[in-house]
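Entry 14. Ran structure prediction on the chain below.
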Amino acid sequence: MQTTPPNNARAARQKRGRVGPRSIRGRLLAGTLIIVPVAITGWLLMLVFNAALWAGRPLVGWAREGLRILLGIQLQPNLGAAENVVAVALTLAMLYILGWLGSNVVGQRFISVAERLLAKIPFVDTIYISAKRMLTAISRPPGGDESSQVVVLIDFPYAPLKAIGFMTNTITDAATGRKVATVFVPTTPNPTSGYMEMVPIENVTLTDWTMEEALTTILSGGASAPSEFHTRPMSS
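Output, structure tokens:
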């Protein structure tokens, strides 16, 4: 029976105990790889929280005034962090209620009336209709037809490089009959900004990616991209 010399056994234990780099450069890089995803996640969550807070603060004011008028309860004008939590909670509740209203007949009629009123306000109607159409286009569920395949690839900034884009519409040149796709190309790692490109329909490549897969790929800089995907040309 062979036995391991003491020095070799000690070296083997030390080797098993090392689970990461030992150099200063290696450990700095390892620390960066740990903190950067956390920082990006925190930054995006902060954007969402601030947006919810911005929308919820007026709701807190209305709720405070309603309690004062209906029940005679007078709340302090500023509750600090607790008020921020309530503001975010009220925003989530408002979104849930709007989603519930939009899913039944009575709510849809109410929303339709509100949209008609907005359509009569100059400039506001342009912003609202454009924003609604864009969100509706990129939130369509994946399907077999081309009208629902919004995750596409286009030559950007030039061929043969490809960029992930969200096809939002198709328009036709009245003079030539040629179709052009409007494609939103988001930036990495912040997909809320990007470029609107008008691409000839024959230069658009359809993918089988879902919105979630595309956004995950963009946010991760491609590190979390699916291992494979299928493409096909956009028919004219």
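Strands lie at 151-155, 162-172, 179-186, 194-200, 205-207, 231-233. Will compare against last week's run tomorrow.
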